[in-house]
Specification:
By secondary structure, the chain is mainly α. The protein is built from eleven helices and no strands. It has two domains: 73 residues, no CATH class; 108 residues, no CATH class. The protein starts with 11 loop residues before the first helix and ends in a 5-residue tail after the last helix.
Length: 211
């Protein structure tokens, strides 16, 4: 059976949630990390196709069919390469899977928890499904200072998923994107102060006070 592909009306969060819970995906890719990687490839391919559609719409008759799907077997081959080394923090690397080896700065727990507990309207702006799940797993790892050799398989995958997600969303500067970065425990490209200031603006807008 074919792998899930994005629909035109779907945003990335909706597609990733649907893709990762798809029965075919679960059967083909038992590890959450593998499913996430494949779903990300599917989404990126879809985005590339949409960009090509926009750029080549006027010459479609000359160009022929511009949509080009990645073969399922090719995807499976790509994911299977992950097993040879840790491929952390990025493909080809062989570092221990841990937050200390991450390429991305960790967002302060205290500030994130304050937003989560006191300002739910702000907290719900972004990353509400997979982001919330990731936040819980990564929070437990950090709060309890769990050693690398004591991580559960799901916690190990949470760290891997954070690295892959952060690489794609590091430049997101909008409120919803910054909230999502907080849920993935990541400081974005504009730095911690930018994120805090943006959150204070959203809190003032919705609650009339500061974080």
């Amino acid at each position: 059976m074919p792998l899930p592909r994005p629909k035109r009306e779907e945003d990335e969060e909706s597609f990733l949630t649907r893709c990762m819970s798809d029965e075919v995906m679960i059967d083909e890719f038992g590890k959450l990390e593998q499913r996430f990687a494949v779903c990300e490839i599917q989404w990126e391919t879809f985005e590339d196709e949409m960009e090509e559609d926009d750029e080549l719409e006027d010459i479609e008759e000359e160009s022929g069919n511009i949509e080009e799907e990645i073969d399922d077997n090719e995807l499976i081959f790509m994911i299977n390469q992950i097993k040879k080394v840790t491929n952390f923090p990025q493909h080809g690397d062989d570092e221990t899977v841990s937050l200390t080896n991450s390429k991305y700065e960790l967002f302060p727990l205290e500030f994130a928890e304050r937003i989560k507990e006191k300002y739910p309207k702000v907290w719900s702006l972004g990353g509400n499904i997979l982001g919330n799940e990731q936040y819980r797993h990564l929070y437990d790892i950090r709060k309890n200072k769990i050693p690398t050799d004591q991580l559960t398989p799901r916690q190990n995958e949470a760290i891997r998923l954070r690295e892959a997600w952060s690489a794609r969303h590091y430049e997101n500067l909008r409120p919803a994107g910054v909230i999502a970065q907080m849920k993935w425990h990541t400081v974005g490209s504009r730095g911690l102060e930018y994120m805090k200031n943006l959150m204070n603006e959203e809190i003032k807008k919705r609650y009339g006070d500061d974080a």
